[in-house]
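Lab meeting, action items carried over

1. Structure of the two-component assembly. Owner: GW. Status: complete.
Input record:
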Amino acid sequence: MTQQTDGPAATTTPEGMPTVDGASTGSGFITSTEVDRIPTLLAPTSGGGPVTAGLYFRVGAADETLATAGLTHLVEHLALHRHGVSDLHYNGSTAATHTHFVVSGTPEEVVAYLNGVCASLRDLPVERLATEREILRTEQAGRGRGPNHQLPLWRYGARGYGLASYPEYGTLHLTADAVRDWAATWFTRDNAVLWMTGDTVPEGLDLTLPAGRRQPLPAPTSALPVTPAYLTGGSGGVVLDGIVRRSTAAALFAEVLGRALFTDLRQKGGYSYTADCGYHPRDTDHATITAYADALPQKQDAVVGGFIDVLARLRAGTIDQAELDSARTKFLKQYEIPDIGAASLPSYALNMLMGHENLTPDEHRAQLAAVTVEDLRDVARELYDSALIQVPGRGVDWAGFTEAPQWSGPSFGPEPLGTVHRSRASDAVSLAVGREAVTLSTPRGRIAVRYDACAAMRVFPDGARHLIGFDAFVVEVEPTLYAKLTPDRMAPIDAAVPAAAVVPMPERDPDEIPQPAARRGGLKGRALGMLRSLRPGRG
Amino acid sequence: MSPTAPDLIRAEFDRCRQIPSLVDLRTAVRGNDWDTVQAYFDFLEDEDERAVAAGLVADLSSSERFLEHQVAAHGSPLARTLLAARYIDVGWDIRSSYTAEHVSREQFQQFHGWLRRAEQLLIGVCADEPAYALAWSYRLTTARGLELGASEARRRYDRLAEHHPHHIQAQILLLQQLCPKWGGSWEEAFGFARACLDAAPAGSHAGRLVVQVHLERWLDDSDDRPSDYLRANEVRDDVLAAADRSVRHPDYRPGFHWVGDHNDFAGALSLGGHYREAAPFFRTLGDKATEYPWAYYGDREVQFLKHRRRAMAKG
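Predicted assembly:
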């Protein structure tokens, strides 16, 4: 998920976009130089259009922790603060693994913008911190979330690439020191790549940044013991993602899958309005393929079935040569634009930043030509083997998918250690506050969060504590819901959870503080009411 | 189809006696002779006959190991589909013919387990051969048993009908899904049955779809004693009109479905007390009976013989 600060950023899909390597071929498409010791890529444009430039840093949301989520975004906002009222075409964006400052204008405007960004990064206007935190919280509240927004936390847990699923908790509490430290560590000249249209670097650039190092990409974590896996719920549509090795064949496959979904679910079946697929590099060697189809009313089940069948056909059945050829034709069309070198600069720069190989146009065309239907089938199998699918309604175990873990442990086994607090709504539910973990026990399963594996603890002024484990499971310790859950009984939690995981929360409305469900109705009804009020699971 | 003496003392439910060529198929399955099985299916004229033949294989308990071996050896679409059909049969036997509230949780889990195995084989066949009618047809049964929803069942039928618009077995299966007991409505069920009959060429098997909705409606109305639903003259006339467009039409080709066709008509008419009208269908059938609809209300053989005797006395 990319967080835009202002206007649309250039979207980059390196295997899909033409990527060229002037330095290695001497073809003159792209040349490399340095500006203030930042690696810099240049490519000429024909005609006297504006200069476009971008400054990438190898830092993003996946480098943060759940408790500090939003740090990079805050730095990006603070760095752009001085440009707030200009007419210049510029923006900043924060993605999982990179931050991008882009500008387009006269050489003087571009120089002023880039100089300003770097000056701010050297000395962040932290006096603006409170305001920018507020702005980010407002942005978050108003931002629509994609249909795939839950998949990262189920795949990766509450850290690294999984943080894309979460709110930016850091905007609630981050201090000036934390933001300054973050900028000094990550926004360095050694962790940046600059790209710019034109033959030469314009006069007057001052991009002085502290020395640092090129930061490695975050290692992927896992909260999915078995794949292909499924979870239920969501928007009513079907969304699937999977991890594949980055390749030209994989990028082509995503195009083929998107078209096949559109053909079967929209054109032929009329079950969906939207059906599409995207390919997004995740790190140096791997990409995420994400496929989505919405569902017209009453057609959800058919969308699930049709989706499963499209996947099955591409991995086990027949892929028509024509499907491959038409995707290939679309990719080759990208070379039919003028100034191909300049158009390729962002993806080229991003590959450089991520340590991924860049191809010359000839190499890329040769790779496109060499892809076979069999190569696509291999990608389909790789996608399926790592797939996580979210479906509305019933699960898809019938199609060979395994349910993603709903509980962190079975409902039986030795009683958890610590003080045990019965639920005020159901005798079958209890919360144990132990020396090492808090554990919620229900008839259907247990959820435990170990203090040393706590990604974030939300601390409320009314006494409640919500612990979110690295595996994304949540235990909400609500004094109103359990017997004898007094401050002294809760003290072990505060003593053991690392300070770095603490997220102080604003005061809640009295209405927002949960109250035990009334003890009436059958046991089952009470237990269900209890479970609803606890919202067990992940999230 | 020759007339038979009216005083039968037993009915013939064995499909191999009803349709003698099926004996060759049964012998081949029991003898682990895959080439003959494959050749038998290749030889059959149409998908409707293949569906009946597959039903026979699925009923044979000896087919399971044989088919598993074939799937491991060559995995042909036919072998995978027949094995799936066998798994569905095993699963459905566990579920038994009780209505849902009488099936234990454990029975349901086993039932679903067999259907999932079947479904995953069938997903593969349909991925390989999108026009493979037999596999799509069995996927209607797995969709119903696994409760995959009405729109999914309809999608599967539509994928089959793209290539095989008058596939009677699939139509019978979807019709079940459209009945209220599986979450549909009488409007949908009747609508579908009539649309199939209207769309099919004259003399098709589709007349029995109309009859089956009437039988389902009657069963649904019946409680401790049979309902009067089928006694209404409008129902009788509707059944006879369907017969005129199908089994009584000069273009009717009996194929493998004729025994089922005629049992449906004989059943709907005689269960409604229209014995005189039922008599010609019984006469055509002789002793050849099917499970459906006779097992719906008591012992299948007793019911068939009783109604046949009454019909022959009147007509």
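2. GW to write a short summary for the group page. Key points so far: Confidence is low (pLDDT under 50) at residues 6-13, 18-27 of chain A. Residues 316 and 457 of chain A are 45 Å apart (CA to CA).
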